[in-house]
Write a structure and sequence with these properties.
Length: 142
């Protein structure tokens, strides 16, 4: 299991500071959905990375600072990959599906663009919360 400090440091760097260490993100690569769902999904990824072993028992003789650095960098890599390549694609699918659904049901495109942010709140947040719930139930996270 990764240390709590390493996981919290990676979460602080990626979520709160908004820095990408390994992967660069193109502006507007994801959908215009609110960030709440992205934060929930990132929290789920942090919980998952806290459950896996990132530093082998074979190398525990190395200093704690090396172990902390390896676990932090590993958690950052996992977090950036999942956010940019998994969650952004899921958000784009939800965005395109809701746009197609509402416009095909006859909603005025101008009204849709005005309300798009609020329309995307429900499906993205519900999906992210569902992923978090399923993960916590599957791993019996205490």
């Amino acid at each position: 299991m990764a240390s709590t400090w390493a996981v919290c440091t990676a979460g602080f760097v990626h979520i709160l500071l908004g820095l990408s260490v390994f992967l660069s993100q193109v502006p507007d690569a994801c959908s215009p959905a609110p960030q709440l769902a992205s934060y929930i999904f990132s929290g789920t990824v942090l919980l998952a990375s806290a459950k896996i072993t990132l530093f082998s028992e074979r190398y525990t003789h190395l200093p704690d600072s090396i172990q902390f650095l390896v676990e932090t960098m590993g958690t950052l890599a996992i977090l950036e990959f999942c956010d940019l390549y998994v969650w952004c694609r899921v958000e784009r699918v939800i965005h395109n599906s809701t746009r197609l659904l509402f416009l095909s049901l006859g909603m005025d495109p101008v009204v849709y663009l005005e309300q798009e942010y609020w329309i995307l709140v429900v499906p993205t947040t519900a999906l992210a919360a569902s992923v978090l719930y399923i993960f916590t139930r599957a791993t019996q996270f205490n």
